[in-house]
Specification:
4 copies of one chain form a homotetramer. By secondary structure, the first copy, chain A, is mostly helical. In chain A, 72% of the residues lie in helices and 0% in strands. Chains in contact: A-B, C-D. The structure holds a DNA duplex.
Chain lengths: 204, 204, 204, 204
DNA sequence: CATGAATGAGTGTTCATTCAT
DNA sequence: GATGAATGAACACTCATTCAT
């Protein structure tokens, strides 16, 4: 359609997009989603509103682009890590993953927090929705490949475990950051996963 | 006898508050938080804006009251249930609790969804924040009282388990409701908790 | 629906509506439709934009209300006059009507001109559309009642004659006002109608 | 020979103008005057805004050129036809002219409708203004040359008749197209003109 | 000559809140 | 107490136009 926004062609344009997203991030952190306005973003970016609208069709596109970028970054790390677990023991793999997830949440933590707690999660703006789906898929594949676990439905198990890990870490970072810092929570999550997946002892 | 005089007024006030919250709920479900306005709520409630402002100091007070009410309702059920688990086996207790949580999420699911996904979770409006804290506390106490589980830090364990359960159910309801309907997910969550808490076999 | 605007209840409100329409008329005449904006109207009316939006859902509603009012006024005069022609001779009736139409166009001529020439005639904003339809209907009925005219299809004839009269007068007022002032054009229109309607002389 | 050099450039310029006007026409029909913007026209034309501004100094110049072209086209046909009526009987001439006008209105009817109903008719953008003036002039001359009509002021008579015909056809096309298709209205208009112009029977 | 990025005043519209009645 | 008219800052978004490349 005619209402799609220009895609940057010139170098200058790409820089403008960058500066707009940076301004969006700052405002999101400082003032929150409710006080994020296109005019404010443009002003902070040192650019006119009109320019903003050349690249983003509306306010939420700005947030979406930012969320997408942050999410992609986090997902990429986790997924890469997940794909390298096949030659690790279950315990090592899981502990490594959980540390990785915690680490990834500590990059730009304020932005991540703002995105997670301010932005409405309806439709396209849900940063977790898409990311977690991808992580679940990869985790599911990783589970399927392992022979050192008891038989479980890989899809359901990864849904439950992945969402549990992310949610607990997320909540802890918001409400009880000391639990994360002391690494107690990471250990508990690891145990939870390991115990869930470990084969039952004894048996024929 | 003389306060009988005032009762009808208080009655009327309560009715007004009721009708305002009901209107808020409807609009939240139909139009979302972003399009919820005090004028709209008042109109829908068949009351003037001025009256609204006599009972709620601002827009968010309305939402907060609603969220509080819904949260309280859900928490009450879970907490009551938790307090009755002391004479049940671990497995029965946990399966019962998870069923209860799922059931509680199915009451006014649209309102719950709207509150969870539209309303910003900053500060006072975070319905889960407070609720989950209370549930964790009660769960923690319940864990402490049990002798049929392996030794775990009750506070940390309840934090991890409670948040895991709520988050997984929440996400599933949004993204994969069929998993809930088939009860597969409930079973997995139950297993996860039971395995985490069950004493290790063998040993002295 | 919920988005209908308030209908004035208090006296104050009616006065506000009045002052808004008056401001709209002034701006339409002075600056034209293109430069008519809700903020400008509100400022000119000495009222806040918000107040404007309490009574008019959007910019065009303002213009529509004005056009409706002007049109109604003009139509009423013509229609009343038309209904009183049954006991007049054809010639007297027609000359009277044409004078009436010319006179009606001279009330608030600037406003009428602005409405006619600036306002897009799409859909609801077409002031002539509805008005002329009503005039045609009444003219049609009047023709049907007359016995001193040759047989014509009353509906088609009134369509052609009414539109001819209005259009010619309209155009003349815009482009050649002197023709109207000298009354030459009125006479020609009258002749045109009379000759069209007069019975053919002689014949069996 | 040396200007052959420049021809390709002029050719290209003409092609650009062409493509711009075509885009303007399309957008006018599809989106209306209000949503016609120079950027949109340029995009639709596959040309940059800058290029547009090399050929048209502003937005309305675009519309004006288009209106001019359409008007000219229609006027040319009518005027040519008018100039060929001197050896036709009054009746044949008038019926032919009216058919011609109706036919001319059916070429690019959507564009004509958009121009007529969307574009403000102030000053330079009034497509009818200039066209009708020219048609009136030629019609006036044609009347003057005829000897088979009763004595009328040729200028006034053509003003009245030409505007009547155009207006009635215009309105009918908008509001009652079936009247045109059935040719009933053409016949009534013809009769109206013929009766107005025919010499009075009898008399010395 | 052509491009397209940039401009910024301006538009229509919403909404939390106040206050005279 | 209740009403509803009024407020006006703020918002998302558009568009004619300019100009460095």
């Amino acid at each position: 359609m005619e209402n799609k926004r220009r895609t940057p062609i010139q170098e200058r344009a790409r820089a403008t997009v960058e500066v707009l997203l940076e301004a969006t991030a700052q405002i999101l952190v400082e003032l929150g989603y409710a006080r994020l306005s296109t005019n404010r973003v443009a002003r902070r970016a040192g650019v006119s509103v009109g320019t903003l609208y050349q690249y983003f069709p509306n306010k939420d596109a700005l947030v979406e682009a930012l969320a997408h970028r942050v999410s992609e970054g986090q997902a990429e790390v986790i997924i890469t890590q997940l794909q390298q677990t096949h030659d690790q023991s279950l315990e090592v793999a899981i502990r490594g993953l959980i540390q990785g997830i915690i680490a990834s949440k500590r990059v730009e933590p304020e932005l991540a927090a703002a995105l997670a707690s301010e932005v409405p999660r309806n439709g396209r703006l849900d940063l977790e929705q898409a990311t977690l789906r991808r992580v679940c898929d990869v985790a599911s594949a990783a589970l399927r490949r392992r022979s050192d676990i008891r038989p479980v439905d890989p899809e359901l198990a990864s849904f439950a475990l992945v969402h549990s890990i992310f949610a607990v870490i997320q909540r802890a970072l918001q409400a009880r950051p000391e639990l994360i810092d002391d690494d107690d929570l990471g250990e508990i999550l690891a145990e939870m996963c390991i115990r869930y997946l470990s084969p039952d002892p004894g048996g024929s």
